[in-house]
Design a protein that fits this description.
This protein is of the alpha+beta class and 582 residues long. Among the domains are: 4-104, Rieske [2Fe-2S] iron-sulphur domain (Rieske Iron-sulfur Protein), CATH 2.102.10.10; 115-203; 467-561. Helix content is 57%, strand content 8%. Strands 1-2-10-9 form a four-stranded antiparallel sheet, with no helix packed on it. A three-stranded antiparallel sheet has the order 3-4-5, with no helix packed on it. Helix 2 (129-142) runs parallel beside helix 22 (559-571), helix 13 (361-373) runs antiparallel to helix 16 and helix 17 (467-479) runs antiparallel to helix 18 (483-495). The longest helix is centred in the middle third of the chain and has 33 residues, at 276-308. The two termini are 23 Å apart.
Amino acid sequence: MLSASSNFVKVATLDELAEGKPRAIKVEGQSIALFKHNGGIYATDNQCPHMGYPLTRGRVRGGVLTCDWHGWSYDMRGGGCFTGGCDDLATFPVEVRENDIYIDIASGGNKRDDAHFLLLQEGMLFGDNWTLSKAVAIILAKGVSEGDVLNRLVRHAGRHFVTELDAREGGRHLANLVNGVKVASQYEPEDRLIPLMMAAAGASGRAGDRPGVARLPGDITWEKLERWIRVFSADREWEGIEKCLITARRLGGHDDKIIPLAYECIVEPFFLGHSDSLLYIGYLAELLEQFGWEVSEELVCGLTAKVLGRGRGAPDEIRREAIGKLESLADFVAEIAANPPSEASDFDEDVFAAGLVSGDLDNTFDTITNALKSGAGIDQIVQTMVLLGADRMARTPASMSPGWWELGQEITLSSSIRKALRFGGYQVAAKALYHVAWEFFSNRWLNIRQMPLSTPRSTTPSDAPNEDAGIEDVISAIETVQIQEVGRVTRGYLNSDFSGDRLLAELGQCILRDDNGWDILHTLRTAFDEWKFCEDHPARNQLLVGLARWTTDERKNTNSDSAAKTALRFAKGETAVDLYEQ
């Protein structure tokens, strides 16, 4: 029985502790390591600050305690780490009273209150997912403001992207950063670790030095900057674009014009075939909206410039033809944008969907043109494009090359037009429709038989007696990699009017636990968005059926799950022994 005197707690007697034979004891739920070394008594956290291995299994020499797993070493008295720069060991004051050993838990602990932020900084600089997982887990456990953490990620990403990454790599990292944050917001704090780790990984990497970008001298107006940015975008001169963007920021009063101008540039015909630029500018717009210019200026200006001025190789013959068609449509798009439809019109989406995936370039582009002429709203068209991609994913043959990534790109790019409409306006969004239509045309190699979206796929309900059992059936099919079965089980679950919201959240957890789920993160985020937007559509369920099938096919290992569980256990102060004994 433990007894207290002041802040000190009796934990053992001298007779119970022998030289060279450390002992683990529990105090207030925390595992403490007691050592007798060279006649002195020492008390430390029993959890190695690196990965939580019990230090009672370590070695002690000359007052230095070394973990037996990875060899990290600590000063037994002060807790200082000799191996890592930001992970000191918690140590506790010890008093020996007659034959009894007392320790003061309240006065011990970590020596640096900002150790978790130093750990986060280390993880961001070196891009180590374990370090990032551990830092995020500790931050969540401490109840630190998530906004403060995300601000640090965005600031670091700005310097990393502008000094180390080109447009394509920067865009890919940006997608992980933004979508990791967006997906994390769909879950309670205890389930946010992996998406936030993915976001941190997206922001992480070497952050080099470079001179600050100064504004252009002289009498500069926004009109001049806008003209120059368009010229530099056509000529692929990203540094000139960045200089112009920084100058616009320094002039003041033009912040709200930067993202719309970026959108106008990336829907120019010469960007056809580089539709991922739509995603990147959309993510930058969201990031700017959430964090503001003060936090995100370097990231937004630097990466926007690289995306607008990205390298674009000479197009092949079919893309040159498509670019020519898009150029010829400029007057039509400008005319319809001047008088956009005020309300939704009758829209034959089955005809539209068949034309979009016809594999004929003229038919693909004419399909967009005819929809706009008929008065269809941008949101109507986007919904059909999203669900067409989802339906194709739900039915793609898995025995050959299923094209999961390409189909996910169809869904995500289609959804991104909503952001183009919101941040760039109607004319930008109308042009973006053709860019995304090109992606559907490019995927004409996929062996997916077209079916009208209005045709019911199946109305057979689940055999499960209740929603919990239905969820268990879907997850079991995923975990056992039953790629054909999971589509049927998912569709049956949804046909039983069980909660789609709950199933989507559970699918997200399966995706996030899988190391191979990084590519699915972006489609998962899109599914969360579109599940709400497409609420009344008869093909809505195909979003989750397609997502479940891709998740199943990618289900190869669970290393992210292991890292996350280890990080969460670490943040709770549990040692590896605690894990094995549970």
